[in-house]
Amino acid sequence: MSETNSAAEVAAPHRYTAAMAADIEARWQDFWDAQGTYEAPNPSGDLGGDAELAARPKKFIMDMFPYPSGAGLHVGHPLGYIATDVYARHQRMTGHNVLHTLGFDAFGLPAEQHAVATGTHPRVSTEAAMDNMKQQLRRLGLGHDRRRSVATIDPDYYKWTQWIFLQIFNSWYDKEADRARPIAELVAQFESGERATPDARPWSELSATERADVLGQYRLAYASDAPVNWAPGLGTVLANEEVTADGRSERGNFPVFKAKLRQWNMRITAYSDRLLSDLDGLDWPEAIKLQQRNWIGRSEGARVDFAVGDDAITVFTTRQDTLFGATYMVLAPEHDLVEKIVPAAWPEGTHDVWTGGHATPADAVAAYRAQAASKSDVERQAEAKDKTGVFTGAFAVNPVSGEQVPVFIADYVLMGYGTGAIMAVPAHDSRDFAFARAFELPMRCVVEPSDGRGTDPAEWDDAFASYDAKIVNSSGEGISLDGLGVVEAKAKITEWLAARGIGEGTVNYRLRDWLFSRQRYWGEPFPIVYDEDGIAHSLPESMLPLELPEVEDYSPRTFDPDDANTVPETPLSRNEDWVNVTLDLGDGPKKYRRETNTMPNWAGSCWYELRYLDPHNGEKLVDPAIEQHWMGPREGMPHGGVDLYVGGAEHAVLHLLYARFWSKVLFDLGHVSSSEPFHKLYNQGMIQAFVYRDARGIAVPAAEVEERDGAFWYQGEKVSRVLGKMGKSLKNAVTPDEISAEYGADTLRLYEMAMGPLDVSRPWDTRAVVGQYRLLQRLWRNIVDETTGEATVVDTEPDEDTLRALHKAIDGAGQDMAGMRFNTAIAKVTELNNHLTKAGGPLSRSIAERLVLLIAPMAPHIAEELWRKLGHTDSVVYQDFPVADPAYVVDETVTCVVQVKGKVRARLEVSPSIGDEELEKLALADPAVVAALGGAGIRKVIVRAPKLVNIVPA
């Protein structure tokens, strides 16, 4: 400590300093915990409490589930948490019973990889990370109801994750009723003959395996051979979001291949239309809704069958009007029909460019499939890349023209969209056009160009695509589309196809079923066992939770990263005592084998809002009355859900889509009253930081970089600077602990909220934090004597200027907090505090108290301390937020600018309610305006009361 600082503290021992802030903050955090200040009572159940508080209007506020990283928090992480805390505090002060808590999405690959590297159980490192994060968050003064906090790794929690999985497994989607129903009701339909089996045999004649296969075609959770992203170097299957754009694993940077493996899937596609239509009832950013709509990708068109020998290639097309222009077909390399249609030898007359230089079609197809398997979907879809492919040796029959068209495989066609097959109309599709040029394939114009290029595609530079043109060259046996517009042609050809049983009008979706298996240890075990015939059976609820067993090796078996011809071996499969069990599932003891995959880390975050409501209920997922109270539909919330959900836009699609799907299944089965999990969604921006790199491109410690003459230097070497993410690996992370230690948590809270609008990204600047620190010091000095530590307020009435400043701040800051405009709310409180500082003298008690209440949601620790110094013995948390007096909010006068020929000639102080006519008279009578006109006539007077008069001389 310097002599100057020491002397200052002796002279003013009760000055607001970092040390005092630390003391105040720790004391009030202990007080809140001891008093249960933030415990929100339920209307019933084991979390009941204050009846008066429970009777208030509810407000359920949530942050997106954090993952407890071993690296702890940097100052970018709490941005959203502080924002929801400020909002929650304001809502409590405006008369609401607020449910606000925070749990942990604690399963995940990082903890498992740490376990693999160190031999430490993932639970140990995960719980240590959670404890550290809880301490960091507590230090920020976040008002969470800690009784409600959950972690997905707790067996008491994942018991219900497993239970929900079984509800989905034991359900099917009834298209006629447009909802999920128990699978037992489907079985009853098969047994009674109300619903026919696929081959029309009576249900009683089907074997147990056949019945299981039939039901598997309906179940909302089912196992199938699915195309997956297989990373041999990690020994696990990856979700699309875990694969980089260059086809490598996000973690470890291993090659990722397309493979077919037996996997669990969720039939989310059954809900495609409801997932789309219900977006209209949600208060979400339009950009997020658009991303969801695009991901679901609804499109109307037709299914068309192209015969190939005894088989048929089914395509989905939105341009069935161009069928006569289909001159070849393309299958995805993974398509099931590829191997069936490949002949032993090349047909006579096969072009050399079609064969890829291979002696047989089988060789060509095998080589191309291997090549395609090493590419990501993004690479395969890249518009600029050269078109590649190979002829299968087979021909299909165009159903309208009867022509034989060659069938290719090419990587630009994916199994993830449509049927994994396309009819190629190269004259009217740019990708098909490029492919046809590369492989010397014919093109036929069937949509008449309107740009003067003519109808011979051989003379074109690119395809011609139009929905507003006539159909040409499209006549065949029994049908002609010539002369029709696109809409009419579509309708006519669709009817013609349906009448012949070779197609029908249909709707297609980009959305695929959700791959729900991972070959990992650290995840929820599936509550599924298999009998000796391989039939899957669900465990009864009495056997839940099915807990993770101990294993000696946490890593899945890894392989040569470049060897795609391998299959996963999971850690769980090595524990034979756990895998092979004898169970009585209702028909006597039998031997079973457990499922050895685990659920993906998405599972636990699909329903956690429900567990927050009733976290200790061991008998039910959630008490219906409690769920109805906090999340049930009501006016303005037709689907129910959480009142406010805050998190990053990076979860725009997958997490939100999955959570919506689970909510809808639970709603259909009668377990919840809300068909949507989150009514209002708000995406906070990101706190960024400067990244400094040396000549090698390696990040250097940002805290050690010096700025000299506009350049940046590290240890004598010039370094570059760019704005980017904040993180440990970039050596630019600043922890909230550091800032809290230097200035106090309230200062950190204010700074993060004052940096700019919450929904935009902003750069961190440690040097700017001191501005909010000084605000709190001035606030403290306005109320507390720094020598005695006593409040200096007086019981006198404030002057009118002060009342106007106060009520304007109350009105503006209150509206801003309700609208989550915290930066402008802080600006208004700062303006008021500056007014009081300049006015000097002791504050009126009524002013001081309302000033404290005004800042309490944003700086709760200092507000509690000042509230106590003002003589109150109760917490500031549930005090009423100040109410503005409208008489003081409206200015007595406003300044009206008077312009002549566009130049300001006068300023008038007028009433805010003055009318146009009266304002015009005042302006024209002003001496300065009269002088500026110089006797000239007036052509026009434009009046915008009360702030502008513009005079145009004749």
Short description:
Helices cover 33% and strands 18% of the residues.
**What is the number of independent domains?**
5
CATH architecture of the largest domain: Alpha-Beta Complex
**Which word captures the global form?**
globular
CATH topology of the largest domain: Isoleucyl-tRNA Synthetase, domain 2
CATH homologous superfamily descriptor of the largest domain: Valyl/Leucyl/Isoleucyl-tRNA synthetase, editing domain
Give the termini separation.
73 Å
Note the total helix count: 31
Q: Can you walk through the features of this model?
A:
With 954 residues, this protein is of the alpha+beta class. It has five domains: 1-35 and 734-889, Isoleucyl-tRNA Synthetase, Domain 1 (Orthogonal Bundle), CATH 1.10.730.10; 36-160 and 603-683, 3-Layer(aba) Sandwich (Rossmann fold), CATH 3.40.50.620; 299-508, Valyl/Leucyl/Isoleucyl-tRNA synthetase, editing domain (Isoleucyl-tRNA Synthetase, domain 2); 687-724, no CATH class; 891-953, Roll (Ubiquitin-like (UB roll)). It contains 31 helices and 33 strands. Strands 24, 25, 26, 27, 28 and 29 form a six-stranded mixed β-sheet that branches. It has a four-stranded parallel β-sheet with strand order 2-1-22-23, sandwiched between helices. A hairpin with a 4-residue loop joins strand 3 and strand 4 (179-182). Helix 2 packs across helix 22 (736-743), helix 5 (109-118) crosses helix 6 (122-139) and helix 24 (770-783) crosses helix 26 (822-839). The protein is globular and about 100 Å long.
